[in-house]
Amino acid sequence: MKKTTTKLSVILSAAVCLGALGMPALAQASSVQPAAEASLNTTKVADSHDQLTLKGSAQFDGNYIKIDLSREGSLFSGMLAGVTLNDKGAPYLAEGTIVGIDAKITQAGGIDLKSPRWISDGDANKAVVVLQTGWLTEQQKTSLASSELSISVKLNGIEDPYVLKFSLKQAGVARNIQLPALKKDNQFEIKTTRVAVGETSVRVALAVKGVATQAQALGYDIYDNLGNELEYIVRESVATTQNTVSEDLLFEAPRPAAEYLIIKPYQAVFEKGTAGAYKVDAKGNVVKNYNKQLEIKIPLK
Question: Labelling 152: which of 48, 237, 276, 297 has CA 20 to 30 A away?
Answer without folding.
Answer: 237
